Amino acid sequence: MSYVSKLCCTYCATTYPKTDLMNLCPKDGRPLEIIIDVAKVKEELPEFSWYRPQLKSMWRFGSLLALDINNEQDRRNIVSLGEGYTPEIPLHQHPLAKKHHFNLFLKDEGQPHKNFGSNPTGSFKDRGMSMAISMAKQFGVKKVVVPTQGNAGDSLAEYAMKANMESVVIMPDDTPMPILGRVSALAKMHDNVTIELVKGTIKEAGQLMKEKYVPQGYFNMATFQEPGWRIDGKKTLGLELAEPNDGLNQAWSLPDVVLYPTGGGTGILGMWKAFDELQALGLIGDKRPRVISVQSEKTAPVVNAFDSNQDDSTIVEAGETIATGLNVPGGVGHFKVLDIIRKSRGAALAVDENSIKENLKSIYHNYGIWICPEGAATLAAIEPAIERGLIQSGDKVVAFNTGSFEKYLPNVRKLLFV
Amino acid sequence: MSYVSKLCCTYCATTYPKTDLMNLCPKDGRPLEIIIDVAKVKEELPEFSWYRPQLKSMWRFGSLLALDINNEQDRRNIVSLGEGYTPEIPLHQHPLAKKHHFNLFLKDEGQPHKNFGSNPTGSFKDRGMSMAISMAKQFGVKKVVVPTQGNAGDSLAEYAMKANMESVVIMPDDTPMPILGRVSALAKMHDNVTIELVKGTIKEAGQLMKEKYVPQGYFNMATFQEPGWRIDGKKTLGLELAEPNDGLNQAWSLPDVVLYPTGGGTGILGMWKAFDELQALGLIGDKRPRVISVQSEKTAPVVNAFDSNQDDSTIVEAGETIATGLNVPGGVGHFKVLDIIRKSRGAALAVDENSIKENLKSIYHNYGIWICPEGAATLAAIEPAIERGLIQSGDKVVAFNTGSFEKYLPNVRKLLFV
């Protein structure tokens, strides 16, 4: 069995048995996190025997994860399609990196790269869903439902199919066609996949889920509503940031700055959890990257709260942004995102639509990389980050590209040509 | 009203009134063509008054088409989404063009280009479907059905929706996801779009159409089964080949060689028809390009017939090719394709899968153009065409890229990366 010890509320710190199949914390409606007993990992598994670096997927982090691929019984529940273990691509020629003398890398979750893993549905959501469906399988869950702004939808459907679970995916009717179409096609071809379309955003999708599917016994896989599963999958982003090229002989270390696009914020919570666990394991110290949470100025609840010194976000009106994954008007985990970016001496920055489009276009034409609008938003945040002194000369800066632009066609095609 | 005079069988030359709503020739089961009274166009509309060069779509050829945009009554039936009027992109740096001193151009039907028209569903099928749905509207047709290997499917659905017709699209269940997904999504979102999936190819799709939908009164829009409509749409490919940059002041002329990927062959019949009409109009002489019909060696009925001096193709087993649009085991119009390529002193050439993939990859990386596997097949045919003396020094050679690679994702993505 894995080294999970319990569940813990990210807000009130109440703990729950790891065997409880829960959603949010019953006391305060906040997200739960899975607690890994890292001290026990350290004691029982010295010298990297927890680690499987030959494995080209996120499951390489073995005993640090909620399901341990080193364990026979856990391994039977792991539902993997090769997700995670993505490269940091150097963008040394980026004009701002050259001008201000920092080292810029793009952590590319979108397209496959030689000698690395590959997210099967072309986005970072696969990390969370691989873990969440695996955990659901361990708990004997047979039916799952997710409301989504897009990428989590086809991801859930693929992993649920692989696990022979029934799935319902609820998304806005203006979700980009490669996602809406793929899930529609899966629903057409497979009886155990259902698609529901709503007017509006993930908010309306969540309402339909609660009214129609949760009462029918579908397990709620919405961001943070599963008990820490998706956070523990996204945690592998942080573990990979720290992982050296040769994990067994070189030092583990963190970048100086991380730029991350923020809808719900699972990835930021996951990365922060990774850093704490690596520190508990003795692989890194207490220094953390400055975490910069990037949103579209059209829908910027975290930025609003950060700028006005609030502890939590207030729900905003949904805007219209090409970065559909950022069109998230509020979130039960935003208080924790705000806490993390403040602790890290980072910030929350909003970028405009035009700078998102320009960055997507220039990375395509200069590097041939198919970044998504959310990834372009993180690059668009570099300039304001420099202006605020958040990026300095000599820094290692990692910007996250969370998916492939192919999932945003035809909208992004129109940006690249004509 | 347009200058259509009658319908004529491409095989037995029997003519039928233009007011008949027919499918194949009842005498021999061969395709019908629409006859335009070009002599009358020439007499009544001198000095290019038939032509609308300011219009950035295939409808610019006004009175030469089966529906005439210059005519008030016809114009009300035209269902246009901006299709056609695509550029010939010079590939002057292509190694074979440089080595053998010919001028190579890619007629790009896939992605949008500045100052040109743009096929709304990203393939040449939009030309045929724009014309076919417009003609169906003129005839008062309310329900249409099409069997397809892919690109004709989403195209029909889009034009039928625009015309408020009911449509049924029947395709193989292994059709590339951007097409299968898009039609599934349209079917999910709109009551008047239906998708049916079959095991096999367009052949099995055609059987289901005849058994289930034709008896329910759906009009058969399969290649060649509508009475010459799709041929007359594809005819605009040939008109554009001849059209000078300034149609009013420069001479119209044809290239020396045309490389065209061949499934059913509508485009080849359409282009040949265009050349004859332009000659009748006095804009070009009797010289024709050498027409090279390109197929995948996996499914090559036209090449087999050409190589063995047969007048018609024999149905082959469907193969497995990345160029799914070429996976057409037989066709009622192949006799005419064979006739045209022989009259033109061209040929039919089969290319292997590896050369298709290599050409797709090199055009993407060297020119940034998103070609489809069928377009890559035409480029792969250049080398064998040179070896057979079909391309000579000084020739103007036009290879057709019939669609965007984005409609073949994720298969083609795997070729470009890793």
UniProtKB/TrEMBL annotation, chains A, B:
Keywords assigned: Lyase, Pyridoxal phosphate
Top enzyme class: lyase
Listed GO biological process terms: isoleucine biosynthetic process; L-serine catabolic process; L-threonine catabolic process
EC number: 4.2.3.1
KW Lyase (keyword) present: yes
One Pfam assignment: PALP
Cofactor (UniProt): pyridoxal 5'-phosphate
Any GO molecular function: threonine deaminase activity
Domain Tryptophan synthase beta chain-like PALP: 79-403
Domain of life (superkingdom): Bacteria
InterPro entries: Ser/Thr_Dehydratase, TrpB-like_PALP, TrpB-like_PALP_sf
Name of the protein described by the UniProt record: Threonine synthase
